[in-house]
Structure formats: structure tokens, C-alpha cells
From TrEMBL:
TM stretches of this protein: 6-29, 41-60, 66-85, 97-116
Keywords noted in UniProt: Membrane, Transmembrane, Transmembrane helix
Top-level lineage group: Bacteria
InterPro entries membership: BilAc:Na_symport/Acr3, Bilac:Na_transpt, Na+/solute_symporter_sf
Primary location recorded for the protein, binned into one broad class: membrane
Membrane topology, as annotated: Multi-pass membrane protein
Protein name per the record: Bile acid:sodium symporter
GO cellular component, one term: membrane
Length: 180
């Protein structure tokens, strides 16, 4: 079982880093500026991911009367914005990968700092009486190494070695609506 656990962890790390690297290969600095200048989009994304979804996690746990451990797990998951699947979902839906990845990196960056206070506030309000210990430093390091660094490397490669970035970029699948 330990070997399976190690393999699954390795696959997850590779998936996250490769996804963020590929998103960086598609990004440009002007495109990122455009995403970060869209204040209504950012406000909506931040509000949804840092307020609404954590409260929804708490509410679902309370609504279904989940046991303490399950309720805490649900709050922990719901309070983790910037999960690494946003860029992959944008790619799969042929959406704006740059906007998805940039928003994801922003959410992960801010979320690694707000995660502990958010979880602490919700668990205190929920009166779970459970001791939960979070290593915020480890969360920040993991987010930086798995999301920020690969995205930045892809972005820099795109900026300073365009032909290499184009060659390494994943091929876009044909659109279901486009003629073959």
C-alpha cells in the first residue's frame, strides 16, 4: 500500500507541475496583465473561492450532519482555493487557459495565506472541538514549487525562447464544432 501511495503522490505532483508549465507556455505578460486588470472577474473569483465555497462546505457538513472528521475534511477541501485543476479544465473546455491559470495561481497564492485563518474561523464557528494543526509554511512552499515555479518557467520560456515554447506546447485537440 505504501508503494501505491508513493506512486499516486508522484503522479499528482507531475500532473500539477506539467499542467502549470504548459499553461505558462501559452501565457504572455500582456495577457496576464489583461487578466489581472479585469477587477470584476478577480473580485468574483476571490469571493466565490475564499468566502462562498468554504461557507458552502461548512453548510453541507451541517446540513447532512456529517461526523466531525468528515465535516472537518469537507471544510479543509472547500477552503483550499486555487486547486491545480483550473488550467486543465480550461484546456479541456477550450476556454481561456491563460485566464484560468492566472486566476488559479492568484487564488493559490492568496489561498495559501488565508487557508489557515479561514479554516480556523469556520471550525471555531462550527464548534467542532477538534484540534487541527496546519503547517502554513509547507502549504506556501508546496504551492510555490508545484504551481508558481512551473508556470513562471513556462512563461519565461515563452518570452525568451518562443520557438522552443511553441514546439513544447501541447497540441490543442480539434474543436467538436470545427470541420475535420
Amino acid at each position: 500500500m505504501d508503494a501505491l501511495h508513493l506512486v499516486l503522490n508522484a503522479v499528482t505532483v507531475i500532473f500539477i507541475a506539467a499542467t502549470m508549465f504548459a499553461a505558462g507556455l501559452r501565457a504572455t505578460v500582456p495577457a496576464l496583465r489583461g487578466v489581472f486588470a479585469d477587477i470584476p472577474l478577480l473580485a468574483l473569483a476571490l469571493t466565490a473561492n475564499m468566502v462562498v465555497i468554504p461557507l458552502l462546505g461548512w453548510g453541507i457538513g451541517a446540513l447532512f450532519g456529517l461526523p466531525s472528521a468528515a465535516s472537518i475534511a469537507l471544510v479543509l477541501i472547500a477552503s483550499s482555493p486555487g486547486g491545480p485543476f483550473g488550467a486543465k479544465l480550461a484546456t479541456g473546455q477550450q476556454g481561456d487557459v491563460v485566464a484560468g491559470a492566472a486566476t488559479q495561481v492568484l487564488l493559490a497564492s492568496l489561498g495559501s495565506l488565508t487557508f489557515a485563518p479561514t479554516v480556523n474561523a469556520i471550525l471555531t464557528a462550527a464548534d467542532t472541538r477538534a484540534e487541527v494543526s496546519l503547517d502554513v509554511g509547507a502549504l506556501v512552499r508546496a504551492m510555490a514549487l508545484l504551481q508558481l515555479v512551473p508556470f513562471a518557467i513556462g512563461l519565461l520560456l515563452r518570452r525568451y525562447a518562443e520557438p522552443t515554447a511553441q514546439a513544447w506546447r501541447p497540441r490543442q485537440p480539434p474543436s467538436p464544432t470545427s470541420p475535420s
